[in-house]
Amino acid sequence: MATVDITGQNFEKTITDNDIVIVDYWAEWCGPCKTFGPTFEEVSNKEALSDIVFAKVNTEEEQELAAHFQIRSIPTLMVFREQVVLFANPGVLNEAQLVELITQIRAVDMEKVHAEIKANESAKT
Question: Which domains occur in the chain, in start order?
């Protein structure tokens, strides 16, 4: 599956309608983004990862979206699973690191994560 472009208009639907979404925040002028882009695209095309949405947000065109997620350095990779951000980190990953990250994301016990979120929200009220 090739990468998809995310905008303010389709962001929420993409995150809501898919179990795992990996978002690459980038810009055309960014050298490290140009280095990471082909790796991100190559991993997105792996058959074993076809259940994952690989998305790209152009921070120049989607400044409001980038600001909402406090993107201060690019490229930044953010991974959502069941609408929860499990990973957010600036920098470039190589293919092996990206595949390992995906393995770790898949291994997360989401029932436990959702229970912790619910407990934290209850504690605030």
Answer: 4-124 (3.40.30.10)
